[in-house]
Write a structure and sequence with these properties.
By secondary structure, the protein is an all-alpha fold. It contains eleven helices and no strands. It has helices at about 5-20, 25-40, 45-60, 70-80, 85-95, 105-120, 125-130, 150-160, 165-175, 180-190, 195-205. The relative contact order is 0.12.
């Protein structure tokens, strides 16, 4: 994927899934999780949604990777790209509820990246429609460092972003995240592909 060869990546992922069969639900979860990443990267959104729903069922029914909620992060992103902003926002709220003091900066940066991706692909109005959904502005009664009020503040700050903005810089300068954590979250968001937009543009023209 980092070499912009999605077809070869698909072949290797298929081999990984074949190898994983019979190796336990944890291994199955991981291989399907990576295939869902490839699908998101290539904007194969309905496929990505089906894969994420599958690994969610594995997690919830068997306890495999029970402490991991990355499928919630990826599900929110996919639903947003599909235009289901209400469910996308509420799913991100669920993901945010599981953050810890050591992961909140990455979750915050992920939110900024998610807004940036929607804006890049579909325009600012679309990104603002996602930010306006009740799932991300829930007032709630919870009090704490990852309370709904904290997420509400982040959403409000994202609403003040300028016409030319960078998610990582905004996360650091406006949302107060640690730069190293913000950069790590952004790398995960683009799947360590040097230029995710370049990959998608090549796929769009059939290169």
């Amino acid at each position: 994927m980092a070499r912009y060869d999605a077809d070869v990546a698909e072949l290797w992922l298929g081999r990984a899934i074949e190898t994983a069969r019979g190796q336990g639900r944890h291994v199955e979860y991981q291989t399907l999780h990576w295939l869902s990443k490839k699908a998101i990267a290539c904007l194969e959104l309905e496929r990505a949604l089906g894969l994420i729903q599958q690994i969610t069922r594995i997690s919830e029914s068997t306890g495999a990777v029970s402490k991991s909620v990355v499928h919630l992060r990826d599900l929110s992103r996919t639903l947003g790209l599909l235009g289901n902003f209400a469910e996308s926002a509420s799913t991100f709220q669920r993901f945010f509820d599981f953050t810890t003091p050591t992961t909140i900066d990455r979750a915050t940066t992920t939110l900024a990246c998610q807004v940036g991706e929607l804006e890049h692909l579909h325009g600012r109005d679309t990104a603002d429609r996602f930010l306006a959904r009740p799932g991300t502005v829930c007032l709630g009664s919870q009090v704490g460092w990852n309370s709904p009020a904290v997420l509400r503040h982040q959403v409000q700050e994202l609403g003040t972003r300028g016409p030319s903005w960078d998610p990582v810089a905004f996360a650091v300068d406006a949302l107060g995240t640690d730069r190293a954590e913000a950069e790590a979250a952004e790398a995960i968001f683009r799947f360590d592909i040097p230029d995710l937009q370049l990959l998608r543009s090549r796929l769009a023209v059939g290169e």
